[in-house]
Amino acid sequence: MTINIHSNRFKITPAIRTFAEEAVESHLGRFTSRIQSVTIRLSDINGLRGGEDKRCSVTVSLARRGNVFVEETVGDLYASIAKALECASQVVTREVERRQNSRTKTDKDAVA
After folding, report:
1. Where are the domains of the chain?
2. What superfamily would CATH give domain 2-111?
3. What's the predicted TM-score (pTM) here?
């Protein structure tokens, strides 16, 4: 699984990179064989004005299943990363379960 982290308005520090990589592993690690890549895009919407403006967009490229996209915006960058990856994990879990259930149903129909 490849992890890409991008930012358009600020430098990604080693601490941010480490936090994001560990969060990916924590939330999506169990799907390593099903995920081709995870792309994280970080942005500070309001700049110096402050507010609920730290956005984290996550795109998970699933092997043979398309992409999952989630986005979270909160006041703290680390919280936005954690929240977005938690949401991505839930969506990936549903997608994998849906595919497994679909495959199991197809296999049962073929046997019958």
Report:
1. 2-111
2. Ribosome hibernation promotion factor-like (3.30.160.100)
3. 0.83
| CA 46 to each of CA 50, 54, 67, 68, 86: distance values in angstroms, whole numbers, following the listed order | 6, 8, 28, 26, 24
Pick the closest to residue 74 from 45, 99, 112, 98 (CA basis): 45
Q: How many Cβ atoms are within 10 Å of 77's Cβ, its own excluded?
A: 20
Q: pLDDT tens string for the chain (112 positions)?
A: 899 999 987 889 999 999 999 999 999 999 999 999 999 999 988 766 656 689 999 999 998 778 999 999 998 999 999 999 999 999 999 988 887 776 665 555 555 5
